Input
Amino acid sequence: MKKILFIAIFGLSLQFSISQETYTIEDEKLELKTEVEGKLDLLWGIIDGSYRYFIRTDNGTITELKNSKDSNKNFLEEYKSTLSNLTGGMPADKVKLTLYSLRVYLDNYNASQDSNYTSVSTKSKVGLRLGFSGGLTNNPFVGNPDNVKTLLIGGELEVFEANNLPRHSGFFQARHAFDSDDFPYSTTEFSIGYRFRVINKSAFSLYAQVKLATLNLSNITLIDEDDMEIKLDDTSFDVPFIFGIGSDIKVNDNGYITIIYGELFAAFLDNQGNFSTDIAIGYKFNL
Output
């Protein structure tokens, strides 16, 4: 298994290294990928943890698309005027500084300039968002007489249609609830689920979610009648329909603070007597 994982990671890294080139832009050496090729090319890369985008004209000039802030920390959106100037006045007021939005804009421009141009955009492009979180849970669907709260960590990959404001999404989630001295139960859960954004704004969204299927790898320590510790391991697969709510708050062009109340109630699991305390806060970003 380790060998297979290593080979997969190596293959992906090799593919990534092959698909990018080194450019010197204003005395800065940058590794960039080419996303769009036409009368105007779109180049991009992740430099020091930030996405940066560049336009290359047919004479080889490369211009960065910038979105700096003023003294009040308001975005200046200089990239919009840059795009409009490079395209001879094509409106750019609705363009977002994201790979998908820039790709659509340049696709439209290149197609208008060359009847033989082949578009790289699709109307149903898939977007990905990776997130990490931590919080507390009382494991509401497990017997917990003293309502003990324990630490919770998790990670997820969210999948959605990459339009400007996706309302529907699916997610693949992994999370681990730790044990404690007062509650010797821990579990690692893998789940798949669905989200619907009830409020869906560019800076804020509020969603309802449901976990459709879960796989739990659990460990519990019991004391028998002779005061001896017994450790039990259990693996269970369920289709529980666990409902929760959450919110994403945009903090930059590519990142969100996320708050998740993950396990309010379930259709096919019984609450074990305690009101659910299962809340986490974290950060997610677009891939």
Remarks:
- The chain has two domains: 11-113, 126-286.
- Confidence is low (pLDDT under 50) at residues 1-18.
- The helical segments are 2-18, 78-86, 99-113.
- The first helix runs from residue 2 to 18.
